[in-house]
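A common beginner's mistake is to predict each chain separately and then try to dock the pieces by hand. The better habit, illustrated here, is to supply every component at once so that their relative placement is modeled jointly.
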Amino acid sequence: MAEQSKPHVDEYTGVDTTGHVWDGIRELNKPLPRWWLWIFYATIVWSIGYWVVYPSWPLITGHLNGVLGWNSRTAVLEDLKGLQDLRAPMVNRLADAEIAGVADDAELLDFTMAFGRAAFGDNCAPCHGAGGGGAVGYPNLIDDDWIWGGQIDEIRHTIAYGVGNDHPDSRLGIMQAFGRDEILDGEQIADVASYVRTLSGLEPAPDTDVEAGAVVFAENCVDCHGEEGLGDHELGAPNLADAIWLFGSDHATITETIQNGRQGNMPAWEERLGATTVTALAVYVHSLGGGE
Ligand code: HEC
Ligand code: HEC
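With all components supplied together, the output reads:
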């Protein structure tokens, strides 16, 4: 219960009391230290100055703009513009350069690699991995094994127009569904899957006939994958005779590929990112493992 008592000097501490008493406990008069108060007042003055100068209070529509007219959105845009201006001479040089000649110009190559690496991280890493290592169904870009060719302009074409999309220049690679479309029966598929494994020195699955599989292969697969299974860049048919697999080398995965077919999809990037960025990406990706 709050009571009042006459302010007096507290006998234990020697400090004045305020006269407020709660349940017999008297309040000592201990004001805030001066220095603290002054800092507190100074922050209030500062905040008023801040409202005047910078954008602050919301209004019914919009907000106070501040006399400086500063705005975080335009500030970012200006920073970006500054960055673009800084880069412009090199970007223009890259835009004018022959892609094959970029590697001969050390300064341009340095810039292009950094530019390409950044664009790769922003756009390509979700599917191909941060370092380009790929994943099941998403090709590894660091090895020298290319579905669509590893020459720099082949790589550039793949990036610019993508694979299996609506762009008129898109690459299109179709692995038919031999089982689902009833071109081959289960036994033929099991046999040819075993034969495919032997092309890269892997063991055939038990209870399959590799010889019969070789015949199935010769009759159905060589048009795209070639007689020795080395693949065809024009058709996007992967090399089946190396140790590199897009979907997997075990008998069950190969069987699944032949049974239901495959159709890789990759977006077209030129319209989205612009020709110069695509060139930088091609130079960067080529440096990872291009050649073949
Ligand atoms: C019309 C062309 C075509 C024919 C015919 C064809 N393939 Fe393919 N095959 C492809 C393409 C294109 C791919 C890659 C699909 C992708 O990238 O999604 C592929 C992928 C594969 C793969 C996956 C390779 C990997 O790295 O994971 C296997 C295995 C395969 N084919 C086996 C066969 C067999 C066996 C036959 C014959 C029964 C056959 N293909 C017939 C075009 C063809
Ligand atoms: C949505 C997933 C996805 C994204 C994002 C993506 N890719 Fe791809 N990319 C693929 C797939 C899937 C293939 C394989 C297509 C096929 O089966 O032939 C591929 C193939 C490629 C190839 C051809 C590889 C070869 O062996 O010939 C290159 C080069 C490539 N991508 C580069 C890029 C670059 C550079 C970017 C970023 C600008 C990018 N990709 C973004 C999915 C993607």
